[in-house]
């Protein structure tokens, strides 16, 4: 496999970047040849703002068939680096979609910062808060791979740390279909901000999911502000009988709102993307 250096990031095999249109109507496409063959790898760490292997601030971006890796704490290496924030990808633009992409790290892998985003058939792996931020996003048929083996014995991980700051914010993370799998033990999420919103809908939750399900973290005493919910999930970790008492039970109207593509796309921007 041939390796190229590009902007101090390691680019493996092939990447095509295409800009379509101009000014406010322009769209940017990153097209690889497969998430195992086209990988951008970097090992920056500690600073959230400085560490992302890939950072996207533009609107109207589509990314296909490639992976973003922060190798600082990589579970696929023998490094003994202390665990700390090391972001593989940061997404801050609006109307951004990822198809068959991979995101690999341990802590803070995918910074879904802000804007409306769609992730389709992607693989996201990590151990602690590895999908976090204030994005308004649907993760459809994605593989959430928990690398709990990177944590100290007895520690459980956290998949999400969502950043909704007030009850009027439209954002939140919706996991629709797909599977949560891996090693060790994990909670589905904890709040990064006081009105965090996360829904797991019809997801295969394997026994890597801790029966408690969620943690209030800095929102202890204000759990009623949080919207942490599950619906229609199945698998060894889907039994909700031992979940925290404050897990939300959403109405059919709320479920329809959050799981419809209109949650992120009322004007049809996904169908207007070039690839």
Which helices and strands occur, and which strands form pairs?
Blueprint: E1 3-6, E2 9-12, E3 15-20, E4 27-32, E5 39-42, E6 54-56, E7 61-64, E8 67-70, E9 89-91, E10 96-99, E11 102-104, E12 110-112, E13 116-120, E14 123-126, E15 128-133, E16 136-140, E17 143-147, E18 157-162, E19 172-176, E20 179-183, E21 186-191, E22 197-201, E23 204-205, E24 227-231, H1 252-259
Parallel strand pairs: 4-7, 5-8, 6-9, 7-10, 8-11, 9-12, 10-13, 11-14, 12-15, 13-16, 14-17, 15-18, 16-19, 17-20, 18-21, 19-22, 20-23, 22-24
Antiparallel strand pairs: 1-2, 2-5, 3-4
Quick description:
This is Pectinesterase 29. The protein is mainly β and 275 residues long.
Task: Provide key terms for this protein.
275 residues; nine-stranded mixed sheet; disordered N terminus; mainly beta; Pectate Lyase C-like; 1 helix; globular; Pectinesterase 29
Which CATH top level class fits?
Answer: Mainly Beta
Mean pLDDT: 90
Helix content: under 10%
Order of H and E elements: EEEEEEEEEEEEEEEEEEEEEEEEH
CATH superfamily: Single-stranded right-handed beta-helix, Pectin lyase-like
Major sheet characteristics: 9 strands, mixed
**Beta-strand content estimate:** 35-45%
Note the overall shape.
globular
How many distinct domains?
1
C-alpha-based Rg, rounded: 18 Å
CATH topology: Pectate Lyase C-like
């Amino acid at each position: 496999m041939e390796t190229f250096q590009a902007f101090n990031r390691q680019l493996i095999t092939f990447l095509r970047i295409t800009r379509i249109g101009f000014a406010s109507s322009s769209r940017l496409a990153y097209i690889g040849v497969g998430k195992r063959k086209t990988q951008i790898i970097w090992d920056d760490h500690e600073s959230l703002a400085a560490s992302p292997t890939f950072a996207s601030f533009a609107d109207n971006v589509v990314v296909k068939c490639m992976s973003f890796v922060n190798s600082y704490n990589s579970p696929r290496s023998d490094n003994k680096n202390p665990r700390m924030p090391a972001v593989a990808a940061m997404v801050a633009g609006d109307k951004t979609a990822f198809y068959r992409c991979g995101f690999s790290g341990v802590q803070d892998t995918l910074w879904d910062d802000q804007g409306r985003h769609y992730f389709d058939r992607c693989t996201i792996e990590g151990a602690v808060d590895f999908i976090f931020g204030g994005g308004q996003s649907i993760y459809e048929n994605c593989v959430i791979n928990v690398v709990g083996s990177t944590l100290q014995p007895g520690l459980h991980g956290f998949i999400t740390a969502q950043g909704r700051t007030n009850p009027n914010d439209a954002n939140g993370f919706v996991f629709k279909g797909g599977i949560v799998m891996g090693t060790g033990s994990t909670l589905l999420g904890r709040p990064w901000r006081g009105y965090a919103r996360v829904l797991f809908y019809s997801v295969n939750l394997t026994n890597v999911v801790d029966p408690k399900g969620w943690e209030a973290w800095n929102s202890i005493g204000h759990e009623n502000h949080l919207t942490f919910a599950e619906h229609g999930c199945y698998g060894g970790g889907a039994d909700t009988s031992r979940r925290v008492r404050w897990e939300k039970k959403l109405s059919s109207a709320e479920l329809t709102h959050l799981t419809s593509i209109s949650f992120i796309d009322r004007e049809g921007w996904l169908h207007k993307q070039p690839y």
